[in-house]
Amino acid sequence: MSERQRIAVVGLGTVHEAPTGSSQRMLAAEAARRAIADAGLQVSDIDGAIDLRRTGGGGDRASYTDAFTRFLGVPAQFYFTIGRGGALAGLATAAATGFLDRGLAKYVLCVGAVDDHTKAQRAKAKGMRGNAHVEKEGYWGKALGDVRAASHHSWMAARHMAEFGTTSEDLGAISVAQRAWACMNPDARMYGKPITVADHQASPWVVEPYHLLDISLISDGAVAFILTTEDRARDLAKPPVTVMGQGFGEVAADLWWEKQNYTRMAVANAKETAFAQAGLNGVEDLDFAQLYDCFTAEVLFQLEDYGWCKKGEGGPFVSAGSIGPGGSIPVNTGGGLLSNWHLGDLTGFAEAVTQLRGEAGERQIEGAQVALATGHGGELVSPGMCSIHTSTILGVS
Amino acid sequence: MTDTATAGDVSAWNKPHPNIDLDIEPFWDGLREHQFLLWTCHVCDARYFPKSFCVNHDNEPFAQNMSWQPSSGRGTIFAMNRHHLAFHPGFKDDVPYVYALVELEEGPMISSTIVGEQPEELTVLGRGVQVVFEDHPAEGFTLPRFELVTE
Lengths: 397, 151
Description:
By secondary structure, chain A is α/β, with parallel strands linked by helices. In chain A, 32% of the residues lie in helices and 18% in strands.
């Protein structure tokens, strides 16, 4: 096989603030505009586009028509949607790699936008919490009381507590660590609002064992990034961030009642593939990690599954301060979905690029060169759990 | 099996409706007759929920080597939580409620609320439960709930 060029992230655009009345389409187009400018490219350079939508999850929320490319006049020769729950950036990168590899595009623009906050505010006026309350085909439980993601994701936290003695305070340590990161990120929703484990414990139960502070934010916003081949990447405005490796895992490879899937994510295959491609021996080769954190326990599981600690020992590991500022492995350094913004795995992916470029300001990890960014999502029929897991290793030389 | 049919279901259903698609319709028909059916392989007697092909061997087209068959309706609590917040206004009078993932005696898992005596500790797992049937004749469906089995 001929030597293939590596793929790199060359442009990044994020939108966290928007004039009221901005649709998802406008949020996406604005993030795209910013990413093109960031890369030092012209709109006319973009010849491929991927729209990241959280379809195939618990709620197919981003079901608008039209393409952000048309809003901007991007002459993309292909445009399609991709995504499974919160797994967006990882899937887009894999798809774009195929197009770039085969010469089907030179610059692929990947964009995801959400207006969950606006939608949730509207729903709240009708007594609803969250967005989707219509049970779709093949789903189970909404009529019975399994109404939102916390209704079944909290089983995983409860199960880990029962099996390994993990405590709510341990989960609180994750929330506290990520808030500490957010307090060094002026763009974060929770900037300037530090919390303690006592605050976590005092926050109301939503679905016990989850307190309010175990649960990710509901946000409006958008992230766009541009991928190209390494030779083109060298001539652009920003230092390229290389995609060193990618891997995928899938809970649906197992039967519905595979019990281990209640205390782990589908990390094994994803890690093995991604780390091998990137030439990493293990997690000790990573400078920081962006671990998908829809809820606190998912972070705990991944710390164990990737091997920062043994299965069952995640509680003491996080309670020792290992993932916060000054810890042995900085995790979700922008605040994550819990304290920064919830734009699926795009939140962590964008933060990884920002850190690797050395643009992270007060929270910058000194000398950071190699990072892991993960995503997962796609809720299966109850017994509900996340389905896909994506591992992406990003690096700078 | 215990039947706890709710006599005179006068109040209108104000919660999300179950989506009863073609695959699962016979299961819901069974519930209405107070039978708890599991998708069963005629070749090896493996039980499934939801409907699928049998993973133990080759199957006939459209899994015609399988059918919905009565089961014990018994199981143990594998995991549970307690909802304190009503995500939907229909559950406002139900909170706090315990929502459990039940491992059925036959192998599959299914989830619903625990009715009657409530478990105290969410981490004390493995307690025996038995399905009970909650009829909603005006809506045309019966919901499966679980109650703790007293030893």
